[in-house]
Amino acid sequence: MAIVDITIIPIGTNEPSVSQYVAEIHQLLETYNDKVKYQLTPMSTIIEGELSVLFEVIQALHEVPFSKGVQRVATNIRIDDRRDKQLIMSEKIRSVEGKLNKS
């Protein structure tokens, strides 16, 4: 399992807000519900799953703004792929919270 932080930035839109693109990207992401887990954040989306599936999902999500007429899209991805143990979003958060509670 890997965790990917993805930010898709449509460039050259007619307005500064991109929330409509984010909503459409998440509608597509919902179709992968059986393959990945995901979490929307104020600045990006976190996706968890098998790395090969994540690459498939990333490519599909990257295409969404193009399908809406955008001519340029910048997609930033950051991959956390730990091989020595199972890596899941909720456990990473619990680990940090546990350390905060010890203080």
TrEMBL record:
Origin: domain of life: Bacteria
InterPro entries: MTH1187/YkoF-like, Thiamine_BP, UPF0045_domain
A Pfam family recorded for this sequence: Thiamine_BP
Occurrences of domain Thiamine-binding protein (ranges): 4-97
GO CC annotations, alphabetized: cytosol
Membership in a protein family: Belongs to the UPF0045 family.
Name of the protein described by the UniProt record: Thiamine-binding protein domain-containing protein
